[in-house]
Structures are given as C-alpha cells and as structure tokens.
C-alpha cells in the first residue's frame, strides 16, 4: 500500500493528527512504527466508545506497525484529571492490576496480539524506578502557565476548585511513558490532546524524535448528548450479549447515526448516504446493528467492517436493511445469533413477548391467602429495585403483566399459572410458583 493511500485510510474518522506531515514522513520511512496507547484501568469494562481508538490502532497493525499498550498501573494511582471538574480518586496498585487483567482480555476483541504487532507494558516498570532528581528534571520542562492552559485545569482554577499538585504530574508521567518506549505515534481521544502534546515536548527534551499526536473523536452515548460512558448508562459494551447490542444500536439517535457509521464501521460515506436514501433511518439503523453486532460476536472483530463483511454475513447492502433474512453466510454461527437477536428485537417492537426470557420461581411462603402483592412480585423478579419503585412505575403505566398494563398498585396476583412480567418495552421475566 502506498504512503498516500495508507494516510488516507488512517485519516478517515480522525479528529486531528498533529502534525500530519510528520506522520507522512514516518510512514514513508518504511520502518515499523511504535504506536502507543496508555490506559488507566480505572474501570474494567470496555465499550464501543473505547473501540473508536482501538479500531484505528488495528488499522496501524494491518499496515505492519506495532501497538504498545501501556497499562497505567502507576499513573492510575495518581488519577487522570482529563475532562473532569474535580480530582479523580486514585487507585491502589492492586486495584489497577486487577482491572487490567479484564481490560487486556477485552482489548483482544479488537487488537491483534501477535508479538510482532502487539506488546503489553506496565508503566510502573519505569515510573516506579524514577529518582526524585529525574522527577524534578521532568517538572522543569513545563511551566505552571502551560498547565493552566489545559481546559479542565483552567475551569477549576477559575471556579476556585482545588487542584492538587500531584495532578500536574500526571501529564508528565504519561509523557515519560512515550520516552520509555520511544513512541512514534500516541493515540487518544480529543480530551487527551494536552497530554499527547506534552509528550512531544518531553521527548524533545530527552533528545528523541517527537511522537505524532493522533486524536480520535469522542463517540456520543445512546442519549445522543453526553459521551459514551458506563457511569452515565448510555453505553454499549464490547462483550455485550448480541440481543442487547442489536437492540441498543437500533435505538441510536438519528442525529448521531452518521457518526456511529463513521467511527464504528468502514462503510464509505457514499454507501451510508445511499443507505439513508434507500432504506431511510430505520433501514440504516438495521444495517448498522447487523454490521456491528455481527462483528462483535466474533472472537476478534474483522480488520474491516465494510460491505464485504456485511455480505459475508449473508446480507445485501443494496437492500438497505430491508432483506428479511440472511442468505448463505460465511459465518453461520454468527449469522444464527445475529438473526436471533434481530428476530427478538422485531418481536418486541411489534408488541410481542419473546420466548427466551428468564424464569424466576417464587417461594410459596411469599403468598398470603394464595396471592402476592404486584409490587412485591416485580421486585422479587428483579425488574424493580424496591416495592416503592414498582409503585411509582405502576402509577406511570410502566409495568405490565401478560401484556396488560398494571393500573392498580395494590393489585393482588395469584400464581396458579406462570405470568410474564414486563418493564418498559423490552425487559421481561417469566414468574411461576416454586413446586
């Protein structure tokens, strides 16, 4: 692949490459580049927002370059303040190591892990060995004024919110990671721009060739407003069950659908536009849900999630999501699970009750005079956290029994036969009396 073509492929979906000409020069050198990603495993779960950066790194791997994933077991004990309006609570070394084990396993869903294109490092290897003299040398490379140029620090300083001195050390520690591995490119979201640019300065101070800062956009969450985040409950996990993933992708807000196609798939812009014109929003959503869900059913997603992969699943992109069932598939097991997820979504969307719903058995002693309070039943079934929440949902017409809306929060139910409880559109539990 030519340098121009490789650069065009890498630029797709990128928010900023600083400086782009240096990336071109590095690619033209013909040597294997070191592509760095630092991750503080403060949470052990990865979602599709993380996948945006990881998929771009996968492209570098397919071009023959090496990914160095640096687990910030040491920096995690500092706490990265990027994009935050208060200090992030630090973790212990044991906590970061425990979270890292799950993190690395999930990264393997996207990144290849052959030794020639992947290396895992922990930054405690070098940061834990730094003498205080070296820390002072690091700190001398950046001024307080430069630190306060960072948006989150600036906002907190202006608002009078305390900034601990150790937080200033975080971007320096991250920058020293780049020195330790001699990074050619550092990846991150747009909220990491300051840290990545500091890395360039620190590498220069240590006499190294400066890394290119490669920034990817932040994927909006399912609310279409905030960034995708588990804490905001607007996320799609990379290991999520296909039925759940498909359902969530079908509910991506229309105004961010194009971003999801751009950042999570490799369909061309013209192909996405054709989808929207031919199949409308519903058809385009269905193609997105099939393509992404099908990819993440695999042990490792394909190098390209494009037209060829969609057709390999047994679908025709020209049908714009209107083809009712997959044809012959190169991935029969994937297609079977994908078809099941789609059928379940369609059944619920039409007001039906899916067959594969969890069963909860109710102990006979929960019944009084042969009946059980409806609020208590929903709580026992796990659809509500408390009887009070169940009562509030009933008052808002949010709970159903056998498809019928529950209107009386004091209703008593017998369990002479199994009942299907429903919360909202798609949370179902079948309950029956324990024998």
Automatic annotation (TrEMBL):
A motif ('HIGH' region) lies at residues 41-50. It comes from the Bacteria. Transmembrane segments: none annotated. GO terms for biological process: tyrosyl-tRNA aminoacylation. Keywords: Aminoacyl-tRNA synthetase, ATP-binding, Cytoplasm, Ligase, Nucleotide-binding, Protein biosynthesis, RNA-binding. HAMAP family: Tyr_tRNA_synth_type2. Pfam families: S4, tRNA-synt_1b. A motif ('KMSKS' region) lies at residues 227-231. Residues 375-434 form the RNA-binding S4 domain. Its EC number is 6.1.1.1. One of its GO terms (molecular function) is ATP binding. It catalyses: tRNA(Tyr) + L-tyrosine + ATP = L-tyrosyl-tRNA(Tyr) + AMP + diphosphate + H(+). Belongs to the class-I aminoacyl-tRNA synthetase family. TyrS type 2 subfamily. Catalyzes the attachment of tyrosine to tRNA(Tyr) in a two-step reaction: tyrosine is first activated by ATP to form Tyr-AMP and then transferred to the acceptor end of tRNA(Tyr). It is an enzyme of class 6 (ligase). ATP binds at residue 230. This is Tyrosine--tRNA ligase. Homodimer. It is found in: Cytoplasm. The lineage of its organism: Bacteria, Thermotogati, Deinococcota, Deinococci, Thermales. Its main location: cytoplasm. One of its GO terms (cellular component) is cytosol.
